[in-house]
Specification:
Layout: E1 2-7, H1 11-21, E2 25-30, H2 33-43, E3 47-50, H3 59-69, E4 75-79, H4 84-92, E5 97-100, H5 105-118
Parallel strand pairs: 1-2, 1-3, 3-4, 4-5
Helix pairs in contact: 1-5, 2-3
């Protein structure tokens, strides 16, 4: 079963992502970037869905560290921080997609399917 790591400091946001994606995935969850990095390297999920705005290490910092160590990591950034700089920086650092919150469930499902299929 495909494992997806959800990294977001909001429990509600993680729950919303799981509901939007539905069954058929195994979900791993982290409430901050540092815990997310640790969980990624322990579990090696097929996909990470990452928020940018979190206390401590932010999502861009976490993405840079993850991709430096694991260039093949598949990451979708899903954030309410929709500044042009944030979007461009996330993509430059290696995110496969940048999705603005709130996101329509069908857009999330499409992005996840495309990233998993394209990079499989």
């Amino acid at each position: 079963m495909t494992r997806i790591l959800l990294i977001d400091d909001s429990r509600y946001a993680r729950s919303t992502l799981k509901q939007a994606l539905g069954e058929g995935y195994q979900y791993l969850e982290a409430a901050d970037a540092l815990s997310g990095l640790e969980l990624y390297f322990l579990e090696k999920p097929e996909l990470v869905i990452l928020d940018l705005t979190m206390p401590g290490m932010n999502g861009l910092e976490m993405l840079a560290q993850l991709k430096a160590i694991e260039p093949a990591a598949r990451v979708i950034v899903c954030s309410a921080d929709v500044q042009e700089f944030s979007q461009q920086e996330a993509l430059r650092l290696g995110a496969a997609r940048f999705l603005a919150k709130p996101i329509a469930p069908e857009h999330l499902r499409t992005a996840v399917s495309e990233v998993l299929e394209r990079e499989a």
